[in-house]
Design goal:
This protein is mainly beta and 364 residues long. The chain is built from no helices and 30 strands. Strand 28 and strand 29 form a beta hairpin. The chain is globular and about 50 Å long. The termini are far apart.
Length: 364
C-alpha cells in the first residue's frame, strides 16, 4: 500500500562532543544527538547502519519512550521522520534499520495496537508501508522489514497464517515472495540482503535452537552452524550481515550462552573469532554486526564485567578495539558498533553512565 511521505523535520546535527582530532592515524569520533531525543535512561539516539556515502540511519527515543526514525547525512544534517500510522504510545513508533547506497531506508513501525508494519523510505522522503498478505494483525504480529539492497529490494519477516515467523523478499515494484529455511519449525528471520539479492538471517528449529542461513538469488537456501555453537534453546548460530561477495558475519551462542563472532565465506568456510578481552560468561563475548566489501567486520563485545566495547576486524583477522568518547563503564553500558562502509567509516551508539543512548560516527 502506497502511503504519503509522513512527518519529516530537517535540522542540523548537534554534537555532544567535539570531534576527536585525527592525529598519528588515530580515528576521529563524532558523537551526536537527534534533537528531540529523550535524556532519561534507555532514551536517546541509536545509529544502526551506514551506507557507502557515510549516511547513517537509525532511530531516537523521545522523553515519552516513543521511537522515531532519522537519517544523518555525511555533512551532519539530520532528517527526522515517522512512518504514517506509527503509534504514539510508549514503546511504539518508527524503527529505522537498513540503508542502501542510494539512501533508501527500511525498517518497521508499531501502530497503536502494537502491530508491526514494514516500510521503505526513499532518499526523497516518500514512505511506502509493507504488509505481507496474510500477515497476522494481532499485537506483536505483522510485518518487519530489515535489509534493503541497491535495487530497493527489501528483506524481512512476517507472522504467517501458521502462527510462525516466515521470511520474505519484496522487489521495488512490490512483488513479494515468502520463504522458510529448511528444517525451520519456530520461524525464519531475514536480516540482511546484498547487492546480488543474497539474504542471510536465522531460523529456529523445534527445540528453539538457531541456525544461520543464506538464501541465494535463485532462492536456494543453505543453513549453517558455526563449530562450537550450542544446541539448546536460545543457543546456536545467527547470520547478521552479508556483503557483495556473499561473505557473512554474525555470531553464535555456545553451551554456556556466551557469544562468539564468525565470518562465513561464500564457499561455506566458517572462521570464528573472539575480541581480546571478551568475557566468557552468559551474555558476554563477541558479536559481529556489519561487514563491508573488503571483508572488514565491525561489532562489539561484552567483557567479564558485561561492559560493551567496539571492535573492527581486518580481513586478515587482526582485531582492534575502541571506545566512543563518553561511553559508560558499568554493566550493560559502553560502545556498540553497528555498521561499516567501504571507506571504513563505522556507525553505532554508546550508552553513557546514566544509561542514555548517543549516536556516533567513527572515521579512520
Amino acid at each position: 500500500m502506497k502511503t504519503s511521505a509522513g512527518i519529516a523535520v530537517v535540522c542540523l546535527c548537534f554534537l555532544s562532543a567535539t570531534p576527536t582530532p585525527a592525529q598519528d592515524n588515530k580515528p576521529t569520533f563524532t558523537t551526536f544527538e537527534v534533537p528531540g531525543s529523550g535524556t532519561g535512561a534507555y532514551q536517546g539516539t541509536l545509529a544502526e547502519r551506514i551506507n557507502t556515502s557515510g549516511v547513517l540511519a537509525g532511530r531516537y527515543v523521545d522523553a515519552s519512550n516513543v521511537s522515531h526514525g532519522f537519517v544523518r547525512a555525511a555533512n551532519g544534517t539530520i532528517t527526522k521522520f515517522n512512518a504514517p500510522g506509527a503509534g504514539t504510545g510508549a514503546d511504539q513508533g518508527t524503527f529505522a534499520y537498513g540503508i542502501n547506497t542510494a539512501g533508501a531506508i527500511t525498517g518497521y513501525y508499531f501502530d497503536a495496537s502494537n502491530v508491526y508494519h514494514g516500510f521503505l523510505r526513499t532518499a526523497s522522503g516518500a514512505i511506502t508501508t509493507i504488509d505481507v498478505p496474510g500477515a497476522g494483525t494481532g499485537a506483536y504480529q505483522g510485518t518487519v522489514a530489515y535489509g534493503v539492497d541497491t535495487a530497493g529490494t527489501v528483506a524481512g519477516y512476517y507472522f504467517g497464517p501458521s502462527a510462525v515467523w516466515v521470511g520474505f523478499v519484496r522487489t521495488l515494484g512490490g512483488a513479494i515472495t515468502t520463504f522458510a529455511a529448511p528444517g525451520a519449525k519456530e520461524g525464519t528471520f531475514a536480516y540482511s540482503i546484498n547487492s546480488g539479492g543474497a539474504i542471510t538471517g536465522v531460523c529456529y528449529n523445534a527445540t528453539d535452537a538457531s541456525q544461520g542461513f543464506v538464501r541465494a538469488a535463485d532462492a536456494t537456501i543453505t543453513t549453517f552452524d558455526a563449530v562450537g555453537a550450542g544446541t539448546g534453546a536460545g543457543q546456536g548460530t545467527i547470520g547478521d550481515s552479508i556483503n557483495t561477495a556473499g561473505t557473512i558475519t554474525g555470531y553464535y551462542l555456545d553451551a554456556s550462552n556466551a557469544w562468539h563472532g564468525f565470518v562465513r565465506a561464500a564457499n561455506g568456510t566458517i572462521t570464528t573469532f573472539n575480541a581480546s578481552g571478551a568475557g566468557t560468561g552468559a551474555s558476554q563475548g563477541t558479536i559481529g554486526e556489519g561487514i563491508n566489501t573488503s571483508g572488514v567486520v565491525t561489532g562489539y563485545y561484552g567483557d567479564a564485567s558485561s561492559v560493551y566495547h567496539g571492535f573492527v576486524r581486518a580481513a586478515n583477522g587482526t582485531i582492534g578495539t575502541f571506545e566512543a568518547p563518553g561511553a559508560g563503564t558499568g554493566a550493560y553500558q559502553g560502545t556498540l558498533s553497528g555498521g561499516i562502509n567501504d571507506a571504513g567509516d563505522i556507525g553505532g551508539l554508546y550508552i553513557d553512565a546514566s544509561n542514555v543512548y548517543h549516536g556516533f560516527l567513527r572515521t579512520p
